[in-house]
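User: Here's a chain of 306 residues. Predict its fold as tokens.
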Amino acid sequence: MQEGSRRAVVAALAANLGIAAAKFVAFAVTGATALLAEAIHSVADSGNEAILGFGGVRAQRAPTAEHPFGFGRERYFFAFVVALVLFSLGSLFAIYQGATKLAHLEPVDQPAVGFVVLGVALVLESLSIRTASRAANAVRGEQGWWTFIRTTKAPELPVVLLEDFGGIVGLLLAAVGLGLTVATGDPSYDAATSIAIGVLLGVIAMLLAVETKSLLIGEAASPSDEADIRSAIVNGPEVERLIHLRTQHLGPEELLVAAKIDLTAGAEPDTARAIDRIEARIRARVPHARVIYLEPDVYRSDATGS
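Assistant: Prediction complete.
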């Protein structure tokens, strides 16, 4: 796990633990269902950060005979687990609590305590998302935020960013629900807010599940990396033609490259040395291309690319 991702995960974990404790206290005092939903949301987020950190540690294990390409994809697996936890523990629980409160309405006590806790939680959540945003800015370049979340190969930053975004929106929803409950004396607003928070968490969980599933199955190199690899292969005297190229991420910072190449006739009597030079050019252009397989072949116009 890169240092920026690690800092973002640790900052989010620390913030969510503090936020969860404060929200549970506020719920105990006020009885506001929206605060309970937000407290469970923060517990789920804290568990998610711990899961991401655990996945990062396991991904660093050395390759074995059973797993010769290493364990880099464990980071994707545990990010997928995070999506499931957020949906089950966060979304479904919040919706259930809101529906239960609608069926058995109870007044909210001492709402001022709830507003204070929500304000403190909003500050802590903002600090967490600022840390994650700074880490993301260091790697996203000119990409927009949505494009970065959809295309990055490191799962931790998108998870933390979406969690923190959902946390901020959830806090604002809880504040609105609590405010409407105090203003009107109708506790159904508080219950409806809990349901709204649950729906929000469900949407975020589904987005994370879709993105991490794609990474878990195996994604190719980014278009820019693939263009650099193609350029590194063909821009040398050894190669007449690139027949086909296949890439796949074995982990966020580890790329598998496999290619068939038509070597220039008579340009290099020692094929092994020619392959070594091509591999060196690829690694110089794309350092995370760790595993490279190049197969010399003869180009045929009717070839299927297999």
